[in-house]
Amino acid sequence: MSGNAFLVDTTKCSGCRACQVACKQWNNLPAEKTEFFAGPEYTNPAELSAITFNHVKFFPVDMSNKEKPVWTIMHKKCYHCTVANCERVCPEKAIYKLDGWTVIDQDKCIGCGACVNACIYHVPHVLEEDLSQYGTEQPLRKYKSYKCHACTVNKRAVPACAKVCPMGALTYASRPEIIKRAKARLEVVKKDFPKASIYGLDQFGGLGVITILKDAPEAYGLPVDPKPVSITEVKAIHDTYALLDLFTFRNKMLKKTAYKVAKKLTV
Ligand code: SF4
Ligand code: SF4
Ligand code: SF4
Question: SS3 string of the chain?
Fold first, then answer.
């Protein structure tokens, strides 16, 4: 785990989406085509995508009392798991750790989608359209996987999303400091939300994004005890892929097919 981490305090987030916009701007990512009622609870765009690395979602926590519904607002990006399923399954070792952050090397990526399927948080996405006029150090490339890189590309000291948050709902500091802040804040939050919890302390060996929730993690669809993908199963797929890869002549499309065949033969 890197020395630093993010703290998302959902009790402070106003849903202004400054973080979402700042990420788009800093990474030179295009806007999404949206429909007003397409996303859940008016959330637009509906989810993270290959061109939206940071997403603000309006989230119903308890709608049982129609007079007094309980809502929260979730800021979501890659959680930067210490034990990262995406990194474990990538057959090209295109996903690696940089200062503890989980980063994708698009030069190596073959667009096989293994990371997309392995991430239980639905974070990485393979870009399916030509958007080469966007991007920063490199143009965006079709059939490559993209997600938040913790501002390690087009590097900056404080990630753009954390820098702009006007509510202090998204902060960035050393991980021990973030954990200290989260625990202290939880005591305050529990007075209004007795079931409030902290997510990210232990999951996948500790996440790079610690989140204060108004309710239990399950209410947000976040598993308390998620399991890393099996190393034995991954190794079997990778071994078969290595054999088939001998016949792909470094062609990315053939490599992608070889990975799909290897998976089918092994699983
Ligand atoms: S949240 Fe998903 S994409 Fe991010 S490090 Fe964890 S497994 Fe990988
Ligand atoms: S799409 Fe495939 S090759 Fe690209 S980063 Fe994901 S797992 Fe690796
Ligand atoms: S850390 Fe950087 S890349 Fe990741 S969501 Fe924030 S602004 Fe976007």
Answer: CCCEEEEEECCCCCCCCHHHHHHHHHCCCCCCCCCCCCCHHHCCCCCCECCECCEEEEEEEECCCCCCCEEEEEEECCCCCCCCHHHHHCCCCCEEEECCEEEECCCCCCCCCHHHHHCCCCCCEECCCCCCCCECCCECCCCCEECCCCCCCCCCCCCHHHHHCCCCCEEEEEHHHHHHHHHHHHHHHCCCCCCCEEECCCHHHCCCEEEEECCCHHHHCCCCCCCCCCHHHHHHHHHHHHHHHCCCCCCHHHHHHHHHHHHHHHC
